[in-house]
Fold these 4 entries.
Entry 1:
Amino acid sequence: MPKAFLVDTTRCTACRGCQVACKEWKGMPAVPTKQTGTHQNPPDLTPYNLKLVRFSEHMDKSGKVFWNFFPDQCRHCLEAPCKQASSVEGAILQDAATGAVIYTEKTVQEDFDVIRGACPYDIPRQNPQTRQIVKCDMCIDRVRANLLPMCVKTCAMGAMSFGERDEILKKAEARLAVVKKESPKAQLLNPTDVAVIYLVAEDPALYHKFAVAQGPQLLTRGQLLAGMFAPFKRMARSIQG
Ligand code: SF4
Ligand code: SF4
Ligand code: SF4
């Protein structure tokens, strides 16, 4: 049975527990960062931060400042555009049992701009040393051992749930009905397309530009052509191999 997450942003306090737990479980190194006058730290996803709690600061009509929190990660798309864009056979796989989209060690180098540009949520990042392209792997090692993904396990606020897709969808709809009573604009983000379903209380643009799926990003003509020809490249490589 495919798996899914519910990320209920209305329960998130931006403690960053999930961000740190992900980093620790994946053995990612610490990297220098700068205080830039916001709570956002680091400023964006990096090859060493596969999960990032985004802080969006706003002011309401009365001049009161408020923040929207968005724990960002790969959505494990049901039909993953990054997988379709890859020209290397076997570089990006979708686990049949869970639906996790996995970047293997073959996910390296030249296709990075095409793969990142294909992602509607701007998730993939590239390690500058190894050229490896990286993102969240659903903690597939833990899930295969019947453990929760590390970020879900760590969230003390119950903002994240993980389980069978059907059950998570039911839970998401039920929670949405409750939140909508106070926040009429509340919605689930791209629930039919992804395995990581976010519940937001307001216009998604007030959380993050890529909170909902965006169209293809601005690619150079060469990158676009590379993406278009990816399936043919894969075919040619498999014939040669
Ligand atoms: Fe939000 Fe939970 Fe992550 Fe803390 S651990 S930032 S409450 S999702
Ligand atoms: Fe790929 Fe982006 Fe979808 Fe993740 S969110 S599976 S990186 S297209
Ligand atoms: Fe990180 Fe695992 Fe959570 Fe993905 S599922 S964001 S790899 S802790």
Entry 2:
Amino acid sequence: MSFFELQNISKSYGRAGIDRQSVLKGVGFDIAGSEALGLIGPSGSGKTTIARIALGMDRPDSGRVRFMGKTISYSRNRAKRIHFSRVQMIWQDPKVYLNPFLPIRATIMEPMAAFGMGTKKERLRKADHLMEILGLPKSSGCLKPGQLSGGQCQRVAIARALSVSPKLLICDEALVSLDLPQQVKIIKILMTMQKEMGLSLLFISHDTKIVRRLCQRILYLDQGKIKRTRVPAAANPTRY
Ligand code: ADP
Ligand code: MG
């Protein structure tokens, strides 16, 4: 049984006979527990569509997504809510999707409350612990996203995603808005989480260099098809 598996996924957008566009054409791959899998491909090749389908936000036209031995459901039910807590996502630009009015400690605590995890005191403790791991000073907890740098906001987004102890973290071009030292810092944090929490990663990027440092296996997507798979030399974030 695979930990996470996309089986023969196809997806089109648009209206039949008018502007129908086939975006994914029979994509299949799996991710093992604690594995970091890279997904590389040119813009428009279907990477974000794969992320949305893996997350359960979008429904494929055909094929299925299996997670921990079960096929994920697309109806609004309990199973889907559980899927949402186990698979988390970090998007490209945190400033766009973090609530600008919510202080960052509350931002990190919000998903735990939404999934009914722990008491308020436990949620506070976990938020503070994650802020510490991600190098966000305690005093910044009451600041709002607009008062932080892009790199700090992305670390808030990562803390928020990790707060519900996901099994799989999908990062879609999550580091593009950061400078190199920030990227290295975050990659090191992700590698530590992978080891210590047994976190699996689907790391989507057009930056081959970053993916080679972080991932145990890399898939190359082109025009909605997986063209090849590579195993890079041992992952090591310090080799910049
Ligand atoms: P990538 O992330 O690799 O750049 P995407 O998965 O975002 O690629 O997009 C692949 C193709 O699918 C693009 O041509 C894009 O315009 C199209 N597409 C993505 N989402 C939608 C949507 N909701 N409606 C229509 N077309 C879409
Ligand atoms: Mg994309």
Entry 3:
Amino acid sequence: MHITKFFPKDLFADHTVFVTGGGSGINFGVAKNFAALGAKVGMCGRSADKLERASAELGEMGAQVFAQTADVRDYGALESVLQATESKLGAIGTLVCAAAGNFICPAEQLSPNGFKSVVDIDLLGSFNACRAAFSQLQKTRGSIVFISAGMSIIPYFAQAHVGAAKAGIDNMMRNLALEWGRFGIRSNSIVPGPIEGTEGMRRLAPGDLGKKLKKSIPLGRYGTTDEIGQAAVFLASPLASYITGTVLVVDGGQTLPGS
Ligand code: COA
Ligand code: NAP
């Protein structure tokens, strides 16, 4: 993988990364970049099929993997996966809060439960993961990486639910940086731009909308799952040892005013 040309292949030897929703898309790209640098990988998601496929691919890369189904809205289920991860792979050094849901719906048509579902998965689910992983992160003096979105920064049409959830995540990220710095725990977010071949882009910019969107991005293209994985690796690495409370925007300039 590209990342092994720039970082040592044993950077994360004896390091456990846990990725919520790690079985597909951007989050799986994050898991693969950590695995390429020697990390042990824990993951959860709702679908066993996705986790099995992802685990097999990570296993082929030589990674030790533990994956179990859990809905991030269910604190008890998440807690038991995180505990099992610690006993199988060792205490978590990097927690990636990345599980999310999204659909297009104008606010005047959105039901309260539709709004709640996205906030519960993205925001409450991220808090659940941080809270349940806290004792492990305290042991490792580890770090948290949240996968946010551009909706946290600027409003997007028909995305009131996602904007509320992701802005909540970024502010919680700063709170945790403030509160957990005393335990040596760092907390940062990544705001990915539109990423090629993902479920998110299938939902948000199908067909011709995608072509139009690409033209509006200063770098003129979608990003890749590896480009988000590389940013996550950097934030979790010793190169970022004094970085906490930061939102790292990896979007080809998409959210720049006027873009
Ligand atoms: N438009 C408007 N409302 C929608 C909707 C849509 N496309 N999809 C779901 N909802 C509403 C439902 O109608 C329901 O509200 P109601 O009870 O008032 O009718 C509410 O959202 C919950 O729906 P449900 O299907 O029970 O949710 P879920 O918990 O099974 O799934 C979602 C969560 C809705 C976010 C689903 O899209 C999902 O699982 N997404 C994960 C994958 C994904 O989104 N990937 C991209 C990440 S960027
Ligand atoms: P994706 O493949 O659908 O990723 C979402 C993952 O979360 C899936 O593996 C899904 O698996 C899991 N998940 C969803 N609800 C869950 C729940 N309740 N409990 C546990 N796991 C759950 O979509 P993606 O587009 O790659 O998005 C990944 C992340 O990047 C998200 O945080 C998204 O907001 C962010 N993002 C994406 C883009 C983009 O261009 N795609 C841009 C900006 C930000 P199950 O369905 O099996 O549970």
Entry 4:
Amino acid sequence: MSPQRRGVCLVIAAPSGAGKSSVTAGLLALEPNLTRSVSVTTRLPRPGERDGHDYFFRTPAEFDALAQSGGLLEWATVFGRSYGTPRDPVETALAAGRDVAFDIDWQGHNNLRSALPRDVVSVFILPPSLHALESRLRARGSDSPAEIDRRMAAARAEITHWHEFDHVIVNTALDDAIISVRAVLQAARLATHRQTSLPGFVATLIA
Ligand code: 5GP
């Protein structure tokens, strides 16, 4: 039998530059049943970012209207800009047994946990050192030195939230980090409460 189940909300959080996007991309390439939640933001696109793929880029007025109408599961202000998670795609995916990955910050994690307490499984990714984190931020090349300083300060603040997460992975080697996140996802899929067809299946075993 192949049991039906509810999808997993896999939150992957990290300070900017810890390698979160690479870990998430690697995991998505391995897991066809996993889709990425595309957030709405009021920040401007970076070079190469596409509307509807990396983010839904919206004006502050459009963002506020969406939040007020209940269209967002959670939202927060990060670096002075608004970021939020659209509600409908997530609820549809979970009900259909599809897993959703969230690249959100610690506030988003707390908010999403409140909104979907039975669905969230969270992973926090730490850089192997602060030096490695700064190198990764500089390698992007798209942010000004002042912006990098701001993101470094924000990274230290983000790291203080490590203990709020279910799992912590130190990203020393990308491939190992991807294997670890994948293991978390696979275990979460097997959680008893997510396997919605189990009561009926077990009833046939003990009848
Ligand atoms: P960036 O501007 O570098 O793409 O993202 C900045 C921060 O916003 C990151 O820490 C990212 O995880 C967070 N973020 C992205 N989308 C969301 C969202 O939908 N909700 C919340 N709370 N944070 C988000």
